[in-house]
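Bench notes, afternoon.
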Amino acid sequence: MRLFGAALLAAMTGSLVFGPARADWVPPLKGNDTGGIISYSLAGAGDVRVIAAHHCARYGKVAKFLGVQAYPGGYVSFACRWVPYGPDQPPLQTRY
């Protein structure tokens, strides 16, 4: 029984040590109802303003851009903000 436990411990340790860390992977869009970040690699591939507007429209808000880190691995940050509007004028929400 001790030999089995030692072998199991060695196998788990080996899988943790030699497994990929995936620390260099960046999600294309990460956010919630208060805002988010978009990977700068998408800036050349698509319109980040539209991506942010779609994200914030899910919560009934509009996007305000805060900053850009214009280098590989950087982010475009934005905030989702409430806007004053009349009862018959909700923010535009489009579907993908």
